[in-house]
Amino acid sequence: MNVKDTARRQFVKIADRAAQQLGSNQTPSEGWLATLRKALGMSGAEVAARMNVSRSAVYQAERNERDGAITISQMQKLAEAMGGRFVYAIIPEGSVDDVIRAQARRKAEARIRRASAHMALEKQALSSAQTKQRIEDLADELARDMPPDFWEVK
Questions:
Q1: Domain finish residue from 40, 71, 89
Q2: Where does a domain end: 89, 117, 136?
Q3: Domain residues for 43?
């Protein structure tokens, strides 16, 4: 095992741990800013005073959060103004292995289907069961080896 593989394994552990801890968290419909502000019993004017901005700037930031148009810096400043801490994460759907396996399966299926089409033209088509097995075998190989074109979309 080389240094690159060791480092990758550490990143996998970090991402998978975050996915387990945060995977079930859903953003509240009003957004995190408005939810925390209301949970604390703070008005927009009170948050604005702590930040030395206008009340409308606070409400605009809350709206921007719901619309996905807020910056990380704004979220951090607003969280601090409310005595909180802004945390963000990008987590895999499931685990890192699940994401890799899904990509490997997509690539394997595309390759096997192309080959099967050519074989069918020559009347050498594989049965459905054989095709599925070939896809699984190739997906295993691709997930294990992760060739340079692994993440390319084709």
A1: 89
A2: 89
A3: 28-89
Q: Which of 73, 88, 10, 70 is nearest to 34 (CA)?
A: 70
Written as tens digits, the pLDDT of the chain (154 aa) is 799 889 999 999 999 998 888 877 788 999 999 999 999 999 999 999 999 999 999 999 999 999 999 999 999 999 999 999 999 889 999 999 999 999 999 999 999 988 877 665 556 677 888 889 999 999 999 999 999 999 998 6
User: How many structural domains comprise the chain?
Assistant: 2
Q: How many CA atoms lie within 13 A of 53 on its CB side?
A: 15
108 in the same domain as 63: no
Alpha helix (H) residue ranges in 3-127: 3-22, 32-40, 44-51, 55-67, 72-81, 96-121
Predicted TM-score of the model (pTM):
0.74
DSSP letter at 126 equals: P
